[in-house]
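Design a sequence for this backbone.
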């Protein structure tokens, strides 16, 4: 799969803007030659693989020193891409980096496309597709937990989870292929029981992985959580309490929040986009009407809706009618510090619709319990999370589902008396589906789509 005729590419591998260090990365057989032209006659010694050395970068025409840079050389195939790679660590000036990159392209280097370095690493078998995707997840991680899961994937954890199933499938396929080729008799009943047991084992292992996607999707993508309710029930105070900072304006006046307000925090490593909405009520105020409409839009976009009510409320009919219009995931009874409680009738109304929890956004009482309650509502704790076996990628989940369907079909075919030849087609399809996850089954459109979403320089 290695493609040795790739042209040499170059790109700035650090974020735009000013910084202490800015890195330009080259990959390809001409990397050393291009860097040599940058150093000119002042290059004191050849670049040594896996060593970093200080050099002056010289403009080849004017002879003027552009910058002093630390240059590191990684010799093929022991590099990120599997090709000769050189990294030039300049001072982090956008002007200097642009000048150096311009010179490299004038020597013949091509500007790298988004994800092209990682694509070459994949095509040169320096990593599989799950590891390449983990690079992007690690770069874009918003929480420590996200970064930890992505780092596991980068080390090839998912591939290791799949390897025993793939090896077992190959053994079955080889045996069945041989049986079809050389044996005309039916399967021995004892062998059939063994084969069905092995397929059941494959199904069990893949099912556990597929089931983890329910949590993995939340870890990777996060959730949108909307706070709704009547004006002046304390939504903005609760918004601030959950964020742990004074983000929303809070006043005793109803209708203070007239538009949706968004901010982010995390619950046990799951990113949460928290939305504070305008109080919902009938109003003639044009601006407040627009705010109410935006509240309804935020509710429709949210993954989870929390309705806030006051502890001293009896929930009058208009408020009950209002709350009945929306998909409430949880009721928060705010202002518990007042020492009052909902009426029994109001409590029963809430209980009939969703769970509820009492808090005081003013004092912080119950906020920690609320965050854990939200987590429990989103993540089933009946099965402990195994970080090494969490599927966070939709593409991986779909491929697992396809593999499971094929294995179940193969089991059904063997169990109902069909020949090995019939079951073989499903076993081959299951193996191909697992290969799609790691990239052993190459589908060009998928590969291009994945790497096109990477940043330039990676």
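Sequence:
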């Amino acid at each position: 799969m290695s493609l040795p005729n790739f042209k040499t590419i170059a790109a700035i591998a650090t974020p735009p803007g000013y910084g202490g260090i800015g890195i330009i990365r080259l990959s390809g057989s001409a990397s050393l030659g291009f860097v040599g032209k940058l150093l000119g006659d002042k290059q004191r010694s050849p670049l040594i693989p896996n060593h970093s050395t200080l050099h002056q970068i010289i403009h080849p025409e004017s002879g003027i020193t552009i910058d002093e840079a630390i240059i590191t050389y990684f010799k093929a195939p022991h590099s990120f891409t599997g090709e000769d790679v050189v990294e030039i660590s300049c001072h982090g000036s956008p002007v200097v980096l642009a000048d150096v990159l311009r010179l490299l392209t004038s020597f013949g280097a091509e500007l790298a496309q988004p994800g092209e370095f990682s694509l070459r690493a994949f095509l040169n078998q320096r990593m599989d597709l799950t590891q390449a995707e983990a690079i992007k997840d690690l770069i874009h991680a918003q929480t420590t937990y996200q970064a930890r899961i992505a780092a596991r994937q980068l080390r090839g954890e998912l591939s290791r989870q799949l390897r025993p199933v793939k090896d077992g499938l190959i053994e079955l396929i080889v045996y069945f292929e041989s049986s079809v080729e050389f044996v005309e008799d039916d399967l021995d009943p004892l062998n059939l029981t063994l084969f069905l047991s092995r397929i059941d084992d494959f199904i069990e292992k893949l099912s556990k992985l597929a089931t983890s996607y329910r949590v993995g999707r939340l870890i990777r993508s996060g959730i949108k959580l909307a706070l709704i309710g009547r004006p002046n029930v304390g939504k903005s105070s609760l918004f601030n309490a959950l964020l742990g900072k004074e983000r929303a304006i809070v006043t005793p006046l109803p209708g203070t929040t007239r538009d949706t307000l968004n901010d982010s925090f995390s619950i046990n490593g799951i990113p949460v986009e928290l939305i504070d909405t305008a109080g919902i009520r009938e109003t003639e105020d044009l601006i407040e009407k627009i705010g109410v409409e935006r509240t309804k839009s935020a509710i429709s976009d949210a993954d989870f809706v929390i309705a806030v009510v006051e502890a001293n409320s009896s929930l009058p009919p208009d408020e009950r009618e209002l709350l009945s219009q929306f998909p409430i995931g949880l009721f928060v009874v705010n202002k518990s510090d007042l020492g009052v409680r909902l009426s029994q009738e109001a409590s029963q109304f809430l209980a009939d619709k969703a769970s509820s929890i009492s808090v005081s956004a003013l004092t912080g009482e119950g906020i920690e319990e609320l965050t854990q309650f939200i987590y429990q509502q989103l993540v089933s704790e009946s099965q402990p999370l195994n970080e090494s076996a969490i599927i966070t990628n939709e593409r991986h989940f779909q491929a697992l589902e396809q593999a499971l369907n094929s294995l179940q079909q193969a089991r059904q075919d063997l169990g109902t008396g069909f020949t090995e030849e019939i079951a073989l087609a499903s076993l081959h399809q299951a193996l191909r589906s697992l290969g799609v996850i790691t990239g052993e089954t190459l589908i060009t459109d998928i590969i291009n789509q994945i790497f096109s979403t990477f940043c330039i320089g990676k």
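The CA atoms of residues 192 and 337 lie 67 Å apart.
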